[in-house]
Amino acid sequence: MALYGETQPVVESFGTTPYEYEWAPPCEKISIKELGSRFLPPLYSLVFIIGLLGNTVVVVILTKYRRLRIMTNIYLLNLAISDLLFLFTVPFWIHYIGSNEWAFGHHMCKLLSGFYYLALYSEIFFIILLTIDRYLAIVHAVFALRTRTVTFAVITSIITWGLAGLAAFPEFVFHEYQHDYGESDCRPLYPEGEEDRWKRFHALRMNIFGLVLPFLIMAFCYSGIIKTLLRCPNKKKYKAIRLIFIIMVVFFIFWTPYNLVLLLSAFHTMFLGNSCEQSKHLDQATQVTEVIAYTHCCVNPIIYAFVGERFRKHLRVFYHRHVAIYLGKYIPFLPGEKMERTSSVSPSTGEQEISVAF
């Protein structure tokens, strides 16, 4: 989602499009800026509400009922925390886009921009870890019994957050509060003479970590999983294979358009020249693909947690015991007491792994 000034052709907003092109004369993008300030805040408000609800439910269920004794659950918890960290920054960007002014000062600009990218990279990395975890559990089950421990999960999670922090470190360094042309912005300020190099590095980094690396790992792991499932007499194997394809397709539908537009924007002058109209089309494409990409934080709880039978069981128990029982006092037709009795089976029986794929 980009916020555009009247004389500066491209000004970053939402920490996602750190590109400025020097034009002669300046390329006016007032209409794109006004369009974004009108339509993007409601869309991102919807993403914020749905994502906050879904990921909060995941955190509550995992910590309340599963006690984090399983490696998969630890990765799921970290994935939800990554999404919540991203969602924490969203209200600030909504205000920025709606008012066309950055009102939170220099330090908040650096902090929120860094957290924004830290959340994006950690989300992708934990999705990769969940894929590898699933691969080990199915394809190398004997080896997985020794390696898929809580200690290993905690260590790999700490390392993953460290790698995400390294990937996001340039955003903590280069994002600055800037007041130019009568407007206050939060955008990257790269070293003079190295702007193009850093812009292209940013785009390549996002494409490598956000598209190429996940694709290669998912292709390898899921192909091995499918081969193993096809040899297995389990009646649910076709449902599992279908879900595998859904996970892969959803991920790449959400992320591929944005990464490709980001790459094209970075190398815009090399491929398309200094065309104002083409730059405007790229800005509009960036706005659309960003909306698609960042709604992925709303989908993560569904495809990685809610599809598990045991997770849904714990969710029903939580609802009956902590929501329906109280709503039944105020809503006569909601049988709260009956729900509580039918859900009296303790969810803590057995510490089997939440099935995130089957």
Automatic annotation (TrEMBL):
Keywords from the named record: Cell membrane, G-protein coupled receptor, Membrane, Receptor, Transducer, Transmembrane, Transmembrane helix
GO cellular component: cytoplasm; external side of plasma membrane
Protein name per Swiss-Prot or TrEMBL: C-C motif chemokine receptor 3
TM stretches of this protein: 43-62, 74-94, 114-137, 149-169, 208-230, 242-271, 291-307
Membrane topology note: Multi-pass membrane protein
Domain G-protein coupled receptors family 1 profile intervals: 54-304
InterPro entries assigned to the protein according to its UniProt record, in alphabetical order: CCR1-9-like, Chemokine_CCR3, Chemokine_rcpt, GPCR_Rhodpsn, GPCR_Rhodpsn_7TM
Molecular function via GO: C-C chemokine binding; C-C chemokine receptor activity
Protein origin, superkingdom: Eukaryota
Family, similarity comment: Belongs to the G-protein coupled receptor 1 family.
Keyword Cell membrane appears in the UniProt entry: yes
Organism: Nannospalax galili (Northern Israeli blind subterranean mole rat)
Protein's GO biological process: calcium-mediated signaling; cell chemotaxis; immune response; inflammatory response; positive regulation of angiogenesis; positive regulation of cytosolic calcium ion concentration; positive regulation of endothelial cell proliferation
Biological classification of the source: Eukaryota, Metazoa, Chordata, Craniata, Vertebrata
Subcellular compartments: Cell membrane
